[in-house]
Amino acid sequence: MLILGAAVTIIWVLGLAVVVWLNIDKAIGLDLNEWGDFLAGGFAPLAFFWLVIGYFQQGKELRLSTAALKMQAEELRNSVEQQRELVKATQEDIAFAKTEADELRRERKKLAQPIFRLDDSVLQYFGMDDAEFAVYLHNYGSEVNEVLISVRGELVKHSRDRSSKLSKWKKDESIPLWFECKTINLNLIDFLECDIFYLDGLGEKSSQRLMFKLEDKKVIDLTVSDVG
Fold first, then answer.
1. Are 109 and 202 in contact (CB under 8 A)?
2. pLDDT by residue (tens digit) across 136-159?
3. DSSP class of 190
4. Mind listing the pLDDT tens digit for each residue in 181-192?
5. Do 148 and 212 fall within a single domain?
6. What is the three-class DSSP state of 77?
7. Are residues 215 and 120 in the same domain?
8. Measured between alpha carbons, how far is 121 from 194 in angstroms, rounded to an integer?
9. Domain range for 70
10. Are 129 and 94 within one domain?
11. Do 203 and 166 belong to one domain?
12. What pTM does this model have?
């Protein structure tokens, strides 16, 4: 468009120059105001022509600017979408890593716990109106420290281990649990509770509760739970 305007301008100016040259005698005799009228009339169409070119050129530039803005907006939307996907992927990675860490933590916690089992046999020492019993508690799991054990029951008078603390209980080690009852009749003894407090293999405080019953010199109905 600019090249066309320049070409038309050159041709137009050359045409005016030719007209002046062909009428040089008359042109020399023109007054200044007449020269002004001549130049105004000669260049007015050219000015209007450049006004039209400017209008179309401005419209073209406006369309280009609009297209560029649309392209930038599209790129911005794509960037926002990519950022959103990146954030989502990052959140999923964090959630997965947290799940893996929690699972590893639970597995480590499980491996750090002792596994308590009571032997079937019961040792008994009878008095006149009461009896002292001992059951052996075996640890098949992790080594634990600072162990505190107590045996409770409706007819239990005293648990020898109630106030004592075992500094270390190794794996595959058995210890006797002594407790005194108010009766020598095993059938009168209801379920007994054995609470065990300790520091597990991770050095964290934990506890377990064993519930059992003595019958015919054997331990029966053994259950294990956390101390409530």
1. yes
2. 889 999 999 999 888 888 777 765
3. -
4. 777 776 677 778
5. yes
6. helix
7. yes
8. 16
9. 2-108
10. no
11. yes
12. 0.56
